[in-house]
Amino acid sequence: MPETQDPHVTQPSSAKFVYDFTEGNKDLKDLLGGKGANLAEMTNLGLPVPPGFTITTEACKVYLDSGTEPAALRAEVSEHLDALEQKMGKKLGQADDPLLVSVRSGAKFSMPGMMDTVLNIGLSDASVSGLAAQAGDERFAWDSYRRLIQMFGKTVLGVDGERFEDALEEAKQAKGVRVDVDLDAADLKNLVAHFKDIVAKETGRDFPQDPREQMDLAVRAVFDSWNTDRAKLYRRQERIPGDLGTAVNVCSMVFGNLGPDSGTGVAFTRDPASGHQGVYGDYLQNAQGEDVVAGIRNTVPLADLEQIDKASYDQLMQIMETLETHYKDLCDIEFTIERGKLWMLQTRVGKRTAGAAFRIATQLVDQGLIDEAEALQRVNGAQLAQLMFPRFDLGAKSEMIGRGIAASPGAAVGKAVFDSYTAVKWSRSGEKVILIRRETNPDDLNGMIAAEGILTSRGGKTSHAAVVARGMGKTCVCGAEELEVDTKSRKMTTSDGTVIEEGDVVSIDGSTGKVYAGEVPVVPSPVVEYFEGRMHAGADDADELVKAVHRIMAYADRVRRLRVRANADNAEDAARARRFGAQGIGLCRTEHMFLGERREMVERLILADTETDREAALSQLLPLQKADFIELFESMDGLPVTVRLLDPPLHEFLPDITELSVRVALAEARKDANENDLRLLQAVHKLHEQNPMLGLRGVRLGLVIPGLFAMQVRAIAEAAAERKNAKGDPRAEIMIPLVGTVQELEIVREEAEQVIAEVEKTHGVDLRLPLGTMIELPRAALTAGQIAESADFFSFGTNDLTQTVWGFSRDDVEASFFTAYLEKGIFGVSPFETIDKDGVGSLVRNAAEAGRATRPDLKLGVCGEHGGDPESVHFFHEVGLDYVSCSPFRIPVARLEAGRAAAESKGSDSR
Hints:
This protein is an alpha/beta fold.
């Protein structure tokens, strides 16, 4: 989840649109973007950063809003370009000794590969020879020129990138070589001519020769790339606001493609996959930066640089230590070596896997770089949820067909697909798929999101596939070189000749890099075993990850204010919830106790024509209900258990009206109709509603069917009394659902209190059973001050509240138009997944305030699915609720996020 801007960081005046790298710092990400802010920070630290300047996000916003750059921008860019030329002693694109620059995007939040970059701006027919003479390397000059035309053509002029790729492939085939470094100067010169022809044919204009025009068009293209489909999709996926805009960084070029003493690489101060300390990253000799992240050439491990260029390696190791100590976190670094000279091109706090996040946070605490409160902020509930997913059973029989680089952990199983379109199509049809590519690029984002996992035959831990997969928490194996991927024929061939066709099931292990044919069985995660109590975090052989999770969870539990309860309907779920750390049950749905063999008893209750028949049906249900509650109170002894009285429409306990009508009609035709079926059909017709979720349900049932709620209250009270007399500590709470007006609650409360008093007298105990209500209707939220007069507690039923506020049925709309709403950006995320703060959240906030104004000691909780959603938990903390309740497996996530919300709130207060 993107961090919020610190309001105490002073922001410069927005009247200035361009900043030299010497003018900014790492706290100006809103203005300079992450890349620009960090380039400025490294410059301030005295690290070797090529000179340059940053065009601010404010300029981008003006451009996106008006369609044209700010009036002052051109003059400011010219001023900073002049200063850069003076500093470098050469002019942009001059013929004899050209200054070349890169134009790179840089939003506040990292969006790897989603926006545009153009290298070698300033090269032209007039200056390519000058660059060759300056470098003493004609091949290098023509290689740089073909890269410019290729990147500029695709990014700025909109030419299909495959046109250039195909031309490059043809040139290699004609030469009889496999990689582009084997093309000589003459080959590249011919390729440049071919590329220029492609540009002219596809765009109707020649490739621009004016270097300033190249730069201005590239800047505009970077601005435009903020709103490309892939960038918008990525922002929706990562919940990045769409109004931030991107900065543009104009940086003097340094060249890694000048021969074997040059190269480019990406380094991590710790392993982003595991969190372990060491030398991690990729290096590629005689290459430019895009070659590494694109995964088009297989790199060597960063450690090999020590043998290739020890001086640069040693300097890089020192800089990495400096940056990690300065940023107090894992740093992701891009660098270039130009003929033995090391240059730093970028640093940022690196994306990491969920396991690495927990390990690194505790490591940094042990090193004294951060405290426990900061460590808690370095992880989140989504990462913890990932760690609870199952993993492959290593003892099961399996057929390994290849192995690559473990880029992003997890156990993913699905049908092989070889393009993003198919991945999306099959996924929408309910199929689980594995996206297999030679390498991915930003256009594959849709398929990567749809797939269970990603497998590539090229690239390393810093390739596009690896970086994006880690950011999404998606399983990924990269660089499986022994697997030959043929996307056109839609197949993959293993080293022994085994062919995996599209549709064949494969399994990939992102923790080991192993690839299997067929489906590999899974086993529980060690983190789940820890939460279940089957693994002790203090044991000598405990997994390092489990120890890290234990430490952070322990701190979260110490600092959180929100208590965490479970939604559980039986003793088994309650016991599991308690093992997972639940502090009670926030929602026990009693309707689940009326299913199975008890359905016939409910039918008898509904069909009862007389008070005697109705009481007989209720007396049959009473002992069964009481037994349910006794088991539940035993499992949760000493902790609160909120029992919701019967809520759903009665038709849910009756046969389907169509099936029953057919059955009766056939029986009548045979003249052997069953009297009970006839009565049942009559009752079903009587109870049939066009929209049952807004009809006879909840408190309305208790008011219309005499004795129903009284029976349930008696069962709860008697179970509590028997448990109490057995020296237990039952803490039952009774919740009345779907209340819309205080009068409904008053009537039910009066009846319930009479029943409780009778049970107390009979059993000789003082039960003290709080009576409260669910706030799940807009009217209840708007009249919460009145309802609180008769309620001991509120529990917000945010599932129904979301449906009634928005006016749609969850079961229907999620399958019909939600996909379109998400794609069009109307929803950033489903309002059933994360609470709609402006609408539903506003009602929750107002109801909480109104309820407490009437009754200061009113207990407030939430029992909808939002109770286990990380972002929603922070909202509930802010609103002042006392607890959240969620499904048992979401309890650890809620505990962690409740701790993070408290720590974040405390940090804001201290500032």
